[in-house]
Amino acid sequence: MSVNHHYYSRFIGFITILSLVFSITTGCSTQKTLRKWQSKPDINGKVVAINNATLFYKIKGSGDKLVIIETGFGTLYSKWIPLQDSLAKYAKVLIYDRGDYGYSTTNNYPRTPDQISNELNELLIKEHLDANQIYLLGHSFGANQIIHDALKIKNVKGLLLLDPAPYDLKSFVTEIKHNPDLDGKTKKFAINTLSGKGGSSIQKAGTIGLIFWLYKMQGGNEKDSNYSVVLNTASKNYYKAMNSESENEVIDFTDKQKEQIANIPMVLITANWFEIAKTISKSYKLKQNSSELLMKLFNEEQKQYLNLSNQSIFKPATTSEHDIYRFEPQIVINSMLELMK
């Protein structure tokens, strides 16, 4: 028995050392790849130094109208290139990486909505990217952010919100906790998802290079649109920015600011909540009726954004995918064209 225990202990020790060596080797290799990638920004874009930050942006198209895209939580500009190409037929379209995302850096913390808006506005002023008509398109976290951007940027004529985060996250989580018609398992799923539980494990796996290593093992390479996003999971500053954005996400405006927002036309597009309910019910083994109620409540929470504008329109998408701009781009394009009329 003691002999078996001895060999077992040696085996565990060997595995521990092997894991440590793998982590160090993979982590160092990934960090080297990340630094090399960051040192050579996309030649079709530009890195601009502003106050305590450098922002990377890419612009395409022409005309007197400018569309600015705010990406979702943790999403880089590269995921939006196909939509930029489509919209560039009708206007100038700017996509960029927020501070400490991708090629961009920042020392401006915490990452409050005002801080993010200030950096974007500084970029526009420094690069003379003014226009008589500016339209803001935001996805998920970015949908919340463009409302703040509209308070800083001049000549904003329209807002397009794609499947935004809950209007008031804290109050929505409280509502979920105390809803008697939702079963315990569905509540736990919703609260863990909304609070980002499990993020620390992903961050640890990312910073030691495990996520990028697994991605490459599956055939991922620089030509893949997901390459830059997966590579950035190795960046500690990337997580720092995301965590700070999440902690400081708010919808809180003065009466004067509400008056300003109320005069800007808005289109809200949300994913198909009924189809999402079926998907999560099957994937996470949740009760169908409880999943449907959860997603219906979530959709109603999203619709609260419509109350901010006196000229708001709601458009439900047919896709159940959160990335509507990728899976149903035409509804996004058509909605933007309607705003620009």
Overall, the morphology is: globular
| C-alpha end-to-end distance | 81 Å
For the sheet with most strands, the description reads: 9 strands, mixed
Oligomer: single chain
Structural class: alpha/beta
Notes on the structure:
Helices cover 51% and strands 15% of the residues. Helix 4 links the parallel strand 6 and strand 7. Strands 1, 2, 3, 4, 5, 6, 7, 8 and 9 form a nine-stranded mixed beta sheet that branches. It contains 15 helices and nine strands. The longest helix is centred in the N-terminal third of the chain and has 37 residues.
Short structural summary:
The chain has 341 residues and is of the alpha/beta class. It has 15 helices and nine strands. It starts with a helix and ends with a helix.
Task: List the SSEs and their pairings.
Layout: H1 2-38, E1 46-50, E2 53-60, E3 65-70, H2 81-87, E4 92-96, E5 105-106, H3 113-126, E6 133-139, H4 141-152, E7 156-162, H5 169-177, H6 184-195, H7 199-207, H8 210-217, H9 227-231, H10 236-248, H11 255-262, E8 266-270, H12 273-283, H13 288-302, E9 312-316, H14 324-327, H15 329-339
Parallel strand pairs: 3-4, 3-6, 6-7, 7-8, 8-9
Antiparallel strand pairs: 1-2, 2-4, 2-5
Helix pairs in contact: 3-4, 5-6, 12-13
Tags for this model:
single chain, 341 residues, alpha/beta, 15 helices, 51% helix, globular
